[in-house]
Design a protein that fits this description.
Elements: H1 8-27, H2 33-40, H3 50-73, H4 75-95, H5 99-127, H6 130-144, H7 146-162, H8 166-185, H9 200-212, H10 214-244, H11 251-262, H12 265-276, H13 278-302, H14 309-336, H15 343-367, H16 374-401
């Protein structure tokens, strides 16, 4: 007997929990970075921030194949397999005695987390379309925005009670609940008759079409710069609070406040994108953030010990998260627009390449952190200038080729 469909309320809650896997897996780790660095890498504690980017790297690599796998074998098997890998990887990280093993486990955990991230979107697409799909996505994102706000608070609470390894136990419990909920309640949304076998030759041909199109190539590059901006800030935000401002105790609270403020970016984007257009809005946002980051660099060079710098950093942190919310969706839409005939595969490739490249761009900045704002501010200035220049170049290329 087939399972009855979920109520809209339960479906939105379940999909929000699936999307929340990534945010919870990253943000809950942040309060534990100092203790992890001191325990597993005392000679170079700054290496602990690789726990963030290694997870993102694994997730980005897996994103390439998760979509096609779910098209071939169904949503539930792929999602549950990803949850199983995520749980095993979290257990390995819990048992690890070296930072290298933790980082390897985090890469595997990222691979597993790609299942909930990608397949949840596919399930929504299977069951809803048009305005109903947009409504479900909006409701899901409203619930999801609470997760980045509370994750560091929960992580700090668990660390205070049982130490940093307890965070990995929380990951296991979270995945067991979400996967069990889906297994017991959510019917398979892709019947066998609609499944499509994976064909390597078709995938290679589709990738060739994507990277042959200048708009798609440049949109992916701009999105990679945007992800790099986000990953740089996330990987270094806790060390900045701790080592630069000696405000580690207040970090979870400030992170929650900033996350809630940044969540309004999607509302502003909805108001502005129709008037300004996706590329122009993103260009303005990147140019503004490049100026903001350059100003922070200058302020730090002129008055590094000024008491107002903490307030400046809070505003800057909020602006980075806000700009990310204002641009990533638009850049993804720009890249997807010419690829409607291979939309499913294009979504996987775009997400994979942009995420992996963003993580690679961000890693060196995290590793050269020196207890000041300069590596972060210089890195963010560079990637925002890169994103802005990419979009300007895109406009000239499209005009020359008559694409718009």
């Amino acid at each position: 007997m087939s399972k009855p469909p979920l109520s809209r309320f339960e479906f939105v809650a379940l999909m929000a929990m699936m999307f929340a896997t990534v945010a919870f897996s990253i943000d809950a780790m942040l309060p534990g970075l100092p203790e992890i660095g001191a325990t597993l890498s005392p000679e170079a504690p700054n290496r602990a921030q690789l726990i963030v980017t290694s997870f993102v790297l694994g997730m980005g690599l897996a994103t390439f194949v998760i979509g096609p796998l779910s098209d071939a074998y169904g949503r539930r098997p792929v999602l549950l397999a990803g949850a199983g890998l995520y749980i095993v990887a979290a257990a390995l990280a819990w048992a690890a005695q070296s930072l290298e093993v933790v980082l390897a486990a985090r890469v595997l955990q990222g691979v597993g987390a790609a299942g909930p991230r990608i397949v949840a979107m596919a399930i929504i697409r299977d069951l809803y379309s048009g305005r109903q799909m947009a409504r479900i996505m909006s409701l899901t994102m409203m619930v999801f925005t609470l997760v980045p706000a509370i994750s560091p608070l929960l992580g700090a609470y668990l660390i205070g009670l049982w130490g940093w390894k307890s965070i990995f136990v929380a990951f296991i419990v979270f995945a067991l609940i979400s996967a069990g909920w889906l297994a017991l309640r959510q019917p398979e949304s892709l019947p066998p008759a609609r499944r499509q076998p994976m064909r390597l030759a078709v995938m290679i041909a589709g990738m060739g079409q994507m990277f042959a199109h200048p708009t798609v190539r440049l949109a992916i590059l701009a999105q990679a710069f945007c992800y790099a901006m986000l990953f740089m800030m996330i990987s270094l935000v806790q060390p900045v609070y701790d080592q630069v401002f000696d405000a580690n105790d207040s970090f979870p609270m400030w992170f929650a406040v900033v996350s809630m403020v940044a969540a309004s970016a999607s509302l502003l984007n909805a108001l502005l994108v129709v008037r300004l257009g996706m590329r122009r809005l993103a260009s303005i946002a990147f140019a503004g953030q490049a100026l903001c980051s350059a100003a922070v660099t200058l302020l730090w060079l002129v008055a590094p010990g000024n008491s107002a710098m903490f307030a400046v950093f809070i505003f800057w942190q909020a602006s980075v998260f806000f700009i990310t919310g204002l641009t990533i969706g638009n850049l993804n839409a720009i890249a997807m627009e010419p690829m409607g005939h291979i939309a499913g595969m294009a979504a996987s490739v775009i997400g994979s390449v942009a995420t992996v490249a963003g993580a690679v761009f961000a890693m060196p900045v995290g590793l050269v952190f020196d207890g000041t704002l300069l590596p972060l501010s210089a890195g963010l200035t560079a990637v925002n200038l890169g994103a802005w220049a990419t979009l300007v170049f895109m406009r000239h290329v499209e005009q020359r080729l008559g694409l718009r």
